[in-house]
Amino acid sequence: MKVRLVYPRFARFRDTHPELESLPEIAGLWKYRMPPALGLQILAALMPDDVEWAVTDANLDPLDFDEAVDLVAISFFTPQASSAYAIADAYRARGTKVVLGGMHPSMYPEDARPHADSVCETWVRPRRSIFDRPGVYDWHAALVQVIRGCPRACPYCNIPEYQGRAFRFRDLDDVVGDIASLRGREFYITEDAVMFKTRAVDRYATELFERLADLDARVFLTTAFGLNERPDFLDTLARGGAQCMYVTFGFDPISEGVYRGDRRFVERAKASVAAFQDRGIRFFGAFGVGFDDDDPGTFDRILEFCEEAGIVTAEFFIATPFPNTPLWHQWRAEGRLLHTDWSRYNCANVVHRPKHMTENELMDGFLRLWREFYSRVPVEDSLSCFTDTPHAYAGRR
Length: 397
Hints:
It is a single chain. The protein is of the alpha/beta class. It has helices spanning about 15, 40-45, 80-95, 105, 110, 160-165, 170-180, 200-210, 230-240, 255-260, 265-275, 300-310, 325-335, 360-375, 380-385; strands at about 1-5, 50-55, 70-75, 95-100, 120, 140-145, 145-150, 170, 185-190, 220-225, 240-250, 280-290, 315-320. The chain has two domains: about 1-120, Rossmann fold (3-Layer(aba) Sandwich), CATH 3.40.50; about 140-385, Aldolase class I (TIM Barrel, Alpha-Beta Barrel). The strands form three sheets. The protein has a six-stranded parallel β-sheet with strand order 6-9-10-11-12-13. Helix 8 (about 200-210) packs parallel to helix 9, helix 10 (about 255-260) packs across helix 11 and helix 12 runs parallel beside helix 14. The model is unreliable at about 390-395 (pLDDT under 50).
């Protein structure tokens, strides 16, 4: 049996807004090429030995729709859906069976079913070597999963619907063994939940980072406000190799207060930035705009906060209602979705009617954030927490 694994093309920020091309290349953002997420890597690890398979990242290489394969498996998230459907339709028109999986089909299977013979709504340790292409991808930090599920109901997030509301913890021996097997020193923990304050998460994350301290690894983390900032826990993160904390702003009470310019919340958020950066952990701010409390003054207040807090690495995104998230259901019920052109659901386009500004004001403010922030911050400072590790997966299955 022959199987083709496909990661479809999607429009990055640079494709959507050519006017930003003059800005510096910031690791992990619109100009950098990185290997796809873990879906296809996990699927490859599950392939029986008697299956002949190959993988294509359609952002880099063309597809041969006339190749002799028995099955095509396509994994994708929402901005890739239009591309995924076109690929699936082209294969099926030639009689090739197609299965669709990943975030978008799992969240919105009724949208995917017309384009597939089967939709996998829930697609081990990933086979990372399938995207080992030295000199092709710019940042090659390994993605590592540790916790699945989330009990919170953040309006922007699809994790509770996609993975369930109960935490499921990966065995720590398996996590540490997985990380130890990587040749590269950099890896990215994919779940925000590792920074939650709950007792069970705290115990799990503390033990994980105590064990990572012996591996000389560089750890990248992601979270939102409401995170665990207990000083001894942050000390453990630092000893365990934490290099960068990606923190999303836009929909929690603290970041909403920052966006309003409320000094209580500004000072609270500045203290969070300092708590990380004083320990040598870069605070990477991700500022979402276009939520229902935002107004035309929000953009200036974000820039002022970044300057006050000493933030030197940041990205900006437009609030985007991904299918079947609370935000999707709210804005659709209110008749505020502009369209379902999935290629534009990439956090760099306005796809809804904002509440307190026009669509043009939102787009202009979003672009101004990029231009003005990176006119103030030297690119060397922004990139200083990243290193070049193009062979992180070399030789590993």
